[in-house]
Records
---
Amino acid sequence: MDTQKHNEMIDRYSARNYAPLPVVIAKGQGAWVEDVDGRRYLDMLSAYSALNFGHNHPRVLEVFIEQARQLTLTSRAFQNDQFGPFCKEITEFCAMDLVLPMNTGAEAVETAIKTARKWGYTIKGVEPDQAEIICCDNNFHGRTVTIVTFSTDPQFRDGFGPFTPGFKIIPYLDPKALEQAITKNTVGLLVEPIQGEGGIVMPPPGSLKRCYDICRSHNVLFMADEIQTGLGRTGRVFACDHEDVKPDVLILGKALGGGVMPVSAVLASKDILGVFNPGDHGSTFGGNPLGCAVARTALKILTDENLSQRAAELGEAFMARLRTIGGSKIKEVRGRGLLIGIELHTQAGPAKTYCKTLKDEGMLCKDTVEQVLRLAPPLVIEPKDLDWAFERVAKVLG
Ligand SMILES: *Cc1c(COP(=O)(O)O)cnc(C)c1O
């Protein structure tokens, strides 16, 4: 079947909850993919950072196939031989005491919310059902009913009420607003250290640290959603590292699954994740041996291939070049490491139009908000491929 036939079939049988570029991908290797008609594209989105190691990373693939032959799923009703090593390795990697594994990012965020609430009631002493969690304007944490409750994008909420009580919104990492929003019932601040879906919005300088300190002084958990920013993407292992902040609760997903499996996790100290008792919370697939094997490999590759450093160096050079593109379209180039946003002037028209043109040029990327193109290639991308991408961007946006 060719591209058109595939698109017709998808339009006919799939719910229309996405409006993707119409490219139909059939193969991938490293930073490159090929569509059903044999056209090649450079993947400058990496499945929203889930493909930090690129498509078909040989080590990920080998472990995935080998583990699939041995054992794929036990449920947590039984232990499996990948789970212990996974827990040990990821907690050491993140310098945390405990881990609670889930699958998708949204599930991990839900888990963090439950953790903060239970911690609030059992440790902090908040009155039953009074716990409050503070979130930031323009956030993205996933798509469950509870999570869209505190979205500030009307489309994410429209038609999905009634919502979950217990959330407050402040301007993104605004220390004054945080201080004012905290009450005796506040159990946590949930925040992305860089807002990805929100348009690659950078934290105001020093604000992560200041908000962290405010949380500390009020006995409020600082919960970092590093699902998109974590595991090397921003040039450090975690985006919070840029301000030497070690969150109380760390939420990981996307790249943790090595690009082949949904694997997410919540990590925290014993005092915090220790609040769970058997039966309180769970997931049939969470901690499955296939996911654990792949995640263990993902963490090893990140270290062995020094990918955080690579993201820092490649990202800095690439951003510097992007800033040399003249013309009337680009308003700002911003980001950290290989998480890069190109904001367009309003008069240039929506970013989506340029994503289509770039696709025709052989480069895949995605608009986030109306005026922002996000560039987030696999961290394993070759410098010459970034040069190639630069030429395409300069041609289309220059
Ligand atoms: C993608 C994302 C999520 C949701 O992850 P899913 O796996 O799509 O549920 C949550 N938070 C952030 C910051 C994300 O980028």
---
Amino acid sequence: MKSAFVVLAALAALTAYYVYLPLPSTVSDPWQLMALDATFRTAQHLCNLIHYMRLSHHLRALNYMIGAIDKLEPPSQGHLKITDTLFDGVEVRVFEPATEQGEALRRSVVYIHGGGWALTSAKSSLYNNLCRTVAESLNAVVVSVDYRLVPDVHFPEQFHDAVRATKYFLRSDVLAKYSVDPDRIAISGDSAGGNLAAAVSQQLSQDENVTNKLKLQALIYPVLQPLDFNTPSYQQNMDMPVLSRFVMVKFWIDYLNGNYDFAYSMLINNHTSLDASQATYFRERMNWTSLLPLTLQKNYKPVIQTAGMPEIVQEMPALLDVRAAPLLAKKAVLQLLPKTYILACENDVLRDDAMMYAKRLEDADVEVTLDYFEDCFHG
Ligand SMILES: *[C@@H]1O[C@H](CO)[C@@H](O)[C@H](O)[C@H]1NC(C)=O
Ligand SMILES: *[C@@H]1O[C@H](CO)[C@@H](O)[C@H](O)[C@H]1NC(C)=O
Ligand SMILES: *[C@@H]1O[C@H](CO)[C@@H](O)[C@H](O)[C@H]1NC(C)=O
């Protein structure tokens, strides 16, 4: 009896140790976040083991587990018409509010889901229910893009899928079919989906063949650059659940089809050292000592290596490709972009990606609405 008690107490202590995280006092719902993080960490450890044993790619295994958890939450019901179809060969799920006879043309949102270019889908309960809510509350047609994922494809395929589906939808005949007003179309996405939404906006605003333009982009804690993993928010939140700095670096390596051996070098910005001249050139466009307000810079110092590993950018040239890293676009491109909404969270490695993009867009005379949540975290 006594020994059972000791074992139980030890187990409880171990569990508490595993689950408990010191979190900033500003985080709302800390226990919910800790539980989510412990679940996600356990799943990731298991998937790394599966990967190590060569049973499956760790992200494929993780996506499978997330899918299984997602099924516990049933898709919500309502009065929308939901159709799975193909837009120029790309899978999409379209949410249409019921139309009334003689009703004016509707507004529309192209939505690109997050998940590190590797996880979940438009058909998951999570994103299905989100897009349903958006469609119902805006009385808008929502096109949720099911682009192909890592490890089946890597950059630039995810980007191409998102461009192709959006471009097809923007055709006048397709908009007419869905009774959509060509002057009221937004694009939106969260996290890696925010990365794709930002990249698609840049691409389409420069494409003279696209006559129906996007009216608005809405980016929710977007991923925008892989050159500096030591922005103040990366330094401050490097161990923050649900997205640690190391996990984000690995998502980038997977997206750009690079080598995991580079991860530790990239953590200390060895890939954008001063002897990697091309990378240094691009880093000037995301110089956070001038782009971020001092209140966010706090006492963090830029991490710039004099001698590093220029071979990383040579092996992963996509690190410098603006279609992967929209924050690196030149001002002349930013000037063409539509009105922009950006959401950023304090307790998120990606906070400064969003903040720097907002500042660069403002400097390019784009109308920007920035929502900054001090008590929120990624995901
Ligand atoms: C626009 O269309 C023309 C003719 O189809 C094509 O040659 C050109 O590459 C297109 N431009 C872009 C930016 O796709
Ligand atoms: C970044 O901005 C600061 C302050 O404006 C400036 O002193 C510094 O030289 C800039 N660094 C780069 C790499 O452009
Ligand atoms: C960073 O680069 C320097 C210079 O090549 C090298 O000595 C160091 O080991 C590298 N650090 C990591 C973590 O890759």
